[in-house]
């Protein structure tokens, strides 16, 4: 009898999860139930599964509301085709701007139910009017009696009880962006929109058996059946399975010869094995579509990185989708694809952030907008946003909202309003708040995609489906991950700059160029990797030094064990120990020595879980992958995991392993599988890291300019400017005659781009070089003002940063001249006035400038100094007793150092919060510090700048860290620009930056908690 139920996917309206809705229906003896969320079908597939499990007939549809949130009608799908009709109606509204009509269109497979307040004069076939219990008295009127055969019971379900109704009103208030007292009755549902036992509801309508019969008829005529077992992706690239197989086989064989030559037996066997599985599973088209996207990219000269589990496939390698040889790294194809998989594998492919949209446009054009869309994602109410949103509902001022959002709960005020915020805020946790676009996942569908979902059009301009990646996988879609990253932009732009600046063509796609390069490996082992993709963070540079990492395979391992989960499982510390002391441990079992010898018997990769499951436990490779997927949270079936676990122990027993040994091996698998990283993924990262490193080693100036122009990486721009200087570049502030919007390079002269001037309008920053290219260099300040539509504030910014130094005049002269030019200036008279009225020349007194005024101008406008080092601005001449390069010689000794703060990382420990700091000394070299909770209480960080540090050096596997015992921020000289205004002499100092990264995780386990045996069991 329930034809109109809402879940919390009726965003900022419904309060029930799908499971709660179905469980309530079961408790009320409901045998058929309709989900009709407002303008969305997000929940219909999970709802269908939940109903089937509960023995309830699922009916799905949508409640159609206009942009003013007024209910127009309820649409129920009679079949799967009906969902397609409803979805196409809403898609036209969302994506094409078509207005929703007051009445429903002519549906073929949809039943429409109108509310009493919006009934058309004539009802079509399959159209009804819903009568709520409080509207039964209208049925005595003749006009309603005539329509009795088209009336049904309407008992909407939105909430469960009074508390949830209050929560519903809070959600509506959040949606309206008002305070609770401003909400009007039409904005929210009635308190009686609850699920009642079926007999109670029927008792209300007992005098109107025709309504009951009509409602039963509607329920019986709706039948949503969905096949969750078959793939829904586009099946064929060429049009048929046979021609797909033929094309893929031909491409694989051609790629095999190119990659391995004609007589590589192992590669040939692997290609045959993979092709057999791919063809058997019907995934040839999926590989070909991916190949087609990559082929298009290559035709434009774009660089891509194929990574993730797809790099486990030799076919992907032969097709050029990835550049990872699976034979070189012993990568398991079963990790990517096996006969147990019913859905296509997913390829992760990265492009430069500048080129990704071109690739996306090709996919939408090539495969048709009716068949392509981005995955959606449901953004939930999160801790901080909950307190802020609910606090606004109760009218709290901004200061109190900030305090609620930023302080821990135990530090919140204890008044009645805050208690309400807590009460309803807790109820909102995990509620979906709004739909958004998945960052990279694209679906390419065989049928029109609106057969499954309505589409929405976010500001990005590509349509999205109304469900997330997990539902997509459940209903038979596997996404293509079309990603972007700045690391590829660094490499791309560096190669172009090298060609432009030095006339050298670097074939950076030739991975052998960088992977086995001696000097690159030397830089790697010393952690000289700032700017390089994935290996530039302080933690990674420390790991590289601890491992003395000087080869590709060690870097692949490092790329995996740096992951938070691996460190959390204790594997990272153990790996570092065994790498440095390979004679101080025994392999746990011979199988670990044989199959995990490269990683000292430690399961570093997801593939290692499969290896141990196979070679120790005797499972098949596909069963090993089920184990891995289930433990990493990818598999959603606990029953499947239990079955494989039982098989594992039964197989171990059959192989003669003692039970205690088998249990310890399973414990190791269990403790690690959820944290591990795909080896192919690590290998892809390692290749890109090497490509970046090669460019940094041999073309450091060009590489650093590319990094700066791609908005950096782990650090702020200042750090890359410092690296460029250390590489021998002459770093210069923006110049109107040499500079561009982005940073430019002439030989070794680097001109920072106008984009880095924080207060300059971006349109002016782009116009300056465009106008110069069209009409030549600017001859003077007057000429510049005549040609660029800029006000006095913009001119002053450019003067202060030194952009007119080509005139030979100092900044004070230029400021006076600019003010004379622009006094009483009207933009419409620009050409007329400046051409007809030459500026009077005034004889100005020579105004002395402190040599450090420029540095303070730079801090104010760029956020960092260019013309000098921050150390030059210190009041003290002291520079410390030890330099960073010598720290390895001071193990267990106390040192005093003066250093400039680069970044600090927050780390939770069982003793409280600690930080790791990264610094540079006066020679420009980096070093790291540890700050424990007790020290931080007495000597906290006080923002960016230079500090005097006292601490004890610990050299941990070749890597020195100073455990700080005392720390003091050192004063800079007063700002000389305000020598006559004492109150402003230290204002700019507060703009000196630091990078702070926060960590939201539990503390890592201590060494004794890891429990990884170093001896045979």
Gist of the model:
Helices cover about 40% and strands about 15% of the residues. With about 1000 residues, the chain is α/β, with parallel strands linked by helices. The radius of gyration is 34 Å and the shape is globular.
Please supply descriptive tags for the structure shown above.
7-stranded mixed beta sheet; 5-stranded mixed beta sheet; alpha/beta; globular; 1017 residues; 41% helix; 39 helices
How would you describe this structure to a colleague?
The protein is α/β, with parallel strands linked by helices and 1017 residues long. A 7-stranded mixed sheet has the order 1-2-3-4-5-6-7. The chain starts with a strand and ends in a 7-residue tail after the last helix.
Strand content: 5-15%
Q: Using DSSP, what is the number of strands?
A: 23
Describe the main β-sheet briefly: 7 strands, mixed
Oligomer: single chain
Taking all Cα atoms into account, the compactness measure Rg is 34 Å
The parts where pLDDT drops under 50 for at least 5 residues are none
Question: Topology of this protein?
Answer:
Elements: E1 2-5, H1 18-27, E2 32-35, H2 44-54, E3 57-65, E4 71-77, H3 80-96, E5 110-114, E6 127-131, H4 142-145, E7 151-153, H5 162-176, H6 198-204, H7 209-221, H8 241-260, H9 265-281, H10 284-299, E8 304-307, H11 314-318, E9 348-352, H12 356-367, E10 372-380, H13 383-393, H14 398-406, H15 416-428, E11 432-444, E12 455-456, E13 464-465, H16 469-474, E14 480-485, H17 486-502, H18 512-515, H19 518-525, H20 538-547, H21 552-561, H22 564-568, H23 571-580, H24 590-595, H25 606-615, H26 621-631, H27 638-654, H28 659-673, H29 679-698, H30 700-709, H31 717-726, E15 730-732, E16 744-746, E17 749-751, H32 762-775, H33 781-787, H34 792-800, H35 811-822, H36 830-836, H37 853-862, E18 894-909, E19 912-920, E20 926-931, H38 933-938, E21 946-956, E22 959-969, E23 995-997, H39 1007-1010
Parallel strand pairs: 1-2, 2-3, 5-6, 6-7, 9-14, 15-17, 18-23, 20-22
Antiparallel strand pairs: 3-4, 4-5, 8-9, 10-11, 11-14, 12-13, 16-17, 18-19, 18-21, 19-20, 21-22
